[in-house]
């Protein structure tokens, strides 16, 4: 298979399995609280635990992918994700839930790093912002599907069946990834030096921080949004359906943002403007009864920065540094995503309301524009030095 858009479709679905599995906890959080006798702080830890392996595995994950190859690495990652979900489905002990979540997250880390590198291989210099926006769109699609189907499954059949559904989806991903082929010349181009120059490394750290902070803000909506609405008297199913509006509208706004960035060549302005609006909407959500209106606006606007942000790393990476560079990018991203939900859960517990978590999300999104400016400055300095 050599059509890059067909390849992108495969990568889209396989990455969707990560989002679906990640959201399997938050989608039925009130049910898990009842089943295991835990609180919001514990749920926040379980959500954030999915990203914990990324802090130590993302960087070596890039090296593993470079050594073993794209397809073997992705298959191994999917098998690990499947095993983690099966552990969570088979036990009613909270400690084993944590262990299964860690195993799933480890697989998710390896898969995320490798899939991003594979997408970059196929689209660098060819509609990269559009392709990355579509690729990233697999996340809201997977979260949206989970919010629609998993609460009903959990209520009807129990929490274990929710995790079985996640395992089944990752198994389908294994079948699909067998169809993947690398782009012509990718193997040869990746055999050079994999060392990153200092400014490229710094730029990747900043880019990873931007993506992590923005995702913390977005994750607060679907991680703690259902609990916020449940506090206001919504049923679990109704709360999940309402929050899923954000995800489904993001399916439109994410690729739209990538297209606009490629079309008008103003990704920085687009990402900054959208981030400021999303921060304001998150703060408004906790202080207003116009829930559906705000969720619709977040969905329509919140996806626009995704493509431009995800294309940042490609600007400082050559083919031979992509695997290790994506490892650096995702190490920072996973560190942020590990801490974000856990801190948010603690804040929600202290404040006695999930609204505190969404307020934290507003602040993290607000931090992105100045970091985007810093990234542009680093890239500009690096370009001048390489030209001199």
Automatic annotation (TrEMBL):
Residues 7-379 form the Major facilitator superfamily (MFS) profile domain. It is found in: Cell membrane. The chain crosses the membrane at residues 36-60, 72-90, 128-149, 155-179, 199-224, 236-261, 268-285, 291-316, 328-348, 354-375. InterPro entries: MFS, MFS_dom, MFS_Efflux_Transporters, MFS_trans_sf. Its main location: membrane. It is a multi-pass membrane protein. Pfam families: MFS_1. The keyword Transferase does not apply. Keywords: Cell membrane, Membrane, Transmembrane, Transmembrane helix. This is MFS transporter.
